[in-house]
């Protein structure tokens, strides 16, 4: 289903509620530092489960003890939409259980 890109004002208002997330013009991004490689891997798996549930997927990068994600809506021409914020908010909600946030 098509989804409209958010305006700059909408993005700024939503970002104000998501400390740690940034907007680069086309994507939302955040990185997390974990206590170990396995902890970081577990966070990646948890995010992947949420992404499948939402049918919306970020680019996820697993480092030694870091997880970085960037998300944009491909079906909106690579712009930021409500779907990106919905994913970011779900990730923020699950991150504290992994020892970050
Ligand atoms: C068919 C499936 O619903 C689409 O390809 C979904 C899957 N995940 C997606 N993820 C993102 N980030 N953008 C999309 O447009 C998108 N589309």
The CATH architecture is 2-Layer Sandwich
CATH class: Alpha Beta
**Main sheet characteristics:** 4 strands, antiparallel
Topology as a string of helices (H) and strands (E):
HEEHEEH
Strand order of the largest sheet: 1-2-4-3
Shape: globular
Q: Which class of secondary structure composition applies to the elements?
A: alpha+beta
The figure for the number of domains is 1
The count of β-strands is 4
Q: List cofactors, ions and other ligands.
A: the ligand C[C@H](O)[C@H](O)[C@H]1CNC2=NC(N)=NC(=O)C2=N1
How would you briefly describe this protein structure?
The protein is of the alpha+beta class and 101 residues long. It has one domain: Gyrase A, domain 2 (2-Layer Sandwich), CATH 3.30.1360.
Textual characterization of the structure:
It comes from Streptomyces chromofuscus. This is Putative pterin-4-alpha-carbinolamine dehydratase. Keywords: Lyase. This protein is α+β, with helices and mostly antiparallel strands. It has a single domain, classed as Gyrase A, domain 2 (2-Layer Sandwich), CATH 3.30.1360. It is built from 3 helices and 4 strands. It has helices at 8-15, 37-54, 82-94; strands at 22-23, 28-33, 59-62, 66-71. A 4-stranded antiparallel sheet has the order 1-2-4-3, with helices on one face. It is globular, with a radius of gyration of 13 Å. The model has no long low-confidence stretch (mean pLDDT 96). It binds ligand H2B. The ligand C[C@H](O)[C@H](O)[C@H]1CNC2=NC(N)=NC(=O)C2=N1 binds at residues 55-57, 71, 73-75.
